[in-house]
Structure formats: C-alpha cells, structure tokens
Amino acid sequence: MYSREYELVFIIRPDVTDEDIETIKDRCARIISERDGNVLKVDDWGKRRLAYEIKDYGKGHFVLFNYLGSTEVVNELERTLRIDDSLLRFLTVKLADRVEVEVRAAEAEAERQRTEAAAEAAAPSEESETRSDAPAGA
Length: 138
Prior knowledge:
four-stranded antiparallel beta sheet; Alpha-Beta Plaits; globular; alpha+beta; 4 helices
C-alpha cells in the first residue's frame, strides 16, 4: 500500500500551558490515525524566538509532525488547526508522493530507536557521577 509523506510544523502561542500543548498534539495524532494515516515522528522543539512578531508575540512553541497519509488527512488537520486560536502559524509540506507505508514506518521506528540509544549513551550514568565526586585518596 502506498501513501504520501508529509511534514507539519506549527507554532503555538508561548503562553499556552503544557497540558494544552499535549492536547493539541494528541488531537493531531488522533486525526491522522482516524483517517488511516501513520504518525512517523513527533518532535517538540519547545519555545523559540520568532524571526518576526506574529500577533504581537516574539516567541512561540514549535512542534513538528512527520506522517503518512492522504490529502484528506491534510485537509482535516489544516481545518482543525485553522480553528484553534492558540496557534500562530502552521505549514504542511509534502515530502514524497509514493511511499510504502510498512517500509517507511519500519524505517521511522528504527530511526527513533537509534536516537534513543544515542541519547542514553550520551547521558552520563549516575554511578560514574558519584564515583567522580569522591576524593582521589578515598
């Protein structure tokens, strides 16, 4: 089965609570899955400074979605995001036309696991931290 791959970036007002941000992300993921799409990656970039003010806001909370779906998914997502007053901007970009769903979903899962393993390897273990704090003569 083939599908299209899309990337969606949206900017949320900086004064929106973390719970509301999670609600928006959950709503987007639900819309994608209800319309037979697959969420490949959700990347929360956090609050960042905007290049120019949007609706008198100098900062915004950025979220990235990579997903597989049809044009119906894109239309419903954009309709829902247009209605939400807590969003400043959003942009959907088509990355690929004919993508095999199973293959691309497996690639995304492997990439996610590699990223998690790299993050765990980069984080110093608690045990090594306690040993480095001890005096050399002890």
